[in-house]
Amino acid sequence: MAWPILCPAGRVPSSFKGVKMKRVVLRVFLGLGLILIMAGTGGYILLRNSPAWDGLMLFSEGTRVENFRNLDALFPSDPVRRGTTVWALGEAPHSLPDGYGFEGENRDLAAFLDRTETTGLLVLHQGRIAHEDYRLGADETSLFTSWSVAKSMLSALIGIALEEGYITSIDDPVADYVSALDGSAYGAVPIRHVLTMSSGIGFDENYDNPLSDVYRIFMSFSTGTPLAEVLAGYEAEREPGIYNNYISSDSLVLGLVLESATGIGLAEYAQTRLWAPMGAEADATWSHSVSGETIAMCCFNATLRDYGRFGHLYLQNGARDDVQIVPQDWIEASITPEAPHLQPGDNPASFWRFGYGYHWWIPEDPQGDYLAIGIWGQYIYIDPSREIVIVKKSADAGFDTRDHETVAAFRAIARHVAGG
């Protein structure tokens, strides 16, 4: 039965008007929803086929392990080529200990290696391979990314540049070498305090906050914003040289100092002064931004054995056979906390309990050992007294809480392999 129209022309009953309005609103929402779906689908397709997708998925559970040994395929990089001769590593196979002591209990080493998603483990004793293990699809040709282990390699290059006279003194202010930072807070900081993560610059290294400074840095790598322009924007929150605060911007400044002082790109300098002379067995790579600036704070990619050779070079006081590559006095200074705020232990002038040298870590209860550390469980551990080098590559989601336990495991391995 048709609804009789009993109202004057141009007017609609309020009940009918409400129904009509609801239909209009529904159509609007459906239309907007369709537009959003289409935009979202198109945006997803664009994102999925852009370089940003690799960055978003870099640390995901399903792809992290593979990404960490293929970073040079995901992001642009420069080659760091091997030389004409390889520093031979002999073999002296040795078992690993069953366990290690930590927090008053004996823990299972095999379970620890599984739990920390170990992808590669190398133990050198007196320059010979005592243990070598590849996991989760890796092998001896895999180029494992360094993350912040690269900071310790950068330290070696600074020492070499100082020896070669490119850098006059590490007490020179940064602006003496990087004119783009002149007049900025960073420009006035002595290189020494950048080396010891004591610049006093305010920088948020929080990886859980997408609005943090470290994310802004990564964005600059993908947008091509000049790195010096970003670094010049940070302000001092305290005077330099009084507080140890780990911030990756300090390492980026060191990279700029090195390139400006030498006039040579970071990857090329690493190749000619360190990688080739050291006798690496494989070419490495060093990732760079879209504008070609090397990412000095991380992202060096190399084989497990070549990381071991770098550690062994430090064990040999910077020399390969009779050729001095990294100055011996630089190595000694690099692994010696030179001020109260850099000492290991409960230190109110430090953000953490490990001590710090020139981009090298000194664990608590010092035993002469020291190490390079990168996020997600990357380590080069060196015990000079036992002539041990341990390299561990990982994709460990719990890395933030593991460093003390990892040192305990490394010390147990060193004692066991060295026989004491």
Write out key terms for the chains shown.
37% helix; disordered N terminus; Beta-lactamase; 14 helices; six-stranded mixed beta sheet; four-stranded antiparallel beta sheet; 420 residues; alpha+beta
Q: What do these coordinates show?
A:
The structure is a single chain. With 420 residues, the protein is of the alpha+beta class. The protein has a single domain (67-418), classed as DD-peptidase/beta-lactamase superfamily (Beta-lactamase, 3-Layer(aba) Sandwich), CATH 3.40.710.10. The protein is built from 14 helices and 16 strands. The chain has helices at residues 14-48, 51-57, 64-68, 71-74, 109-115, 149-163, 191-195, 213-223, 227-231, 248-262, 266-278, 304-315, 328-334, 403-418, and strands spanning 77-80, 90-91, 99-102, 105-108, 118-125, 128-134, 144-145, 284-287, 300-302, 319-320, 323-324, 355-356, 361-362, 370-374, 378-383, 388-394. The strands form five sheets. The chain has a six-stranded mixed beta sheet, sandwiched between helices. The chain has a four-stranded antiparallel beta sheet with strand order 1-8-9-7. The protein has a two-stranded antiparallel sheet with strand order 3-4. A hairpin with a 2-residue loop joins strand 5 and strand 6 (128-134). Helix 6 (149-163) packs parallel to helix 10 (248-262) and helix 6 (149-163) packs across helix 11 (266-278). The N and C termini lie far apart (100 Å). The model is unreliable at 1-30 and 41-55 (pLDDT under 50). Residues 117-398 form the Beta-lactamase-related domain. Keywords: Hydrolase, Membrane, Transmembrane, Transmembrane helix. GO terms for molecular function: hydrolase activity. The chain crosses the membrane at residues 24-47.
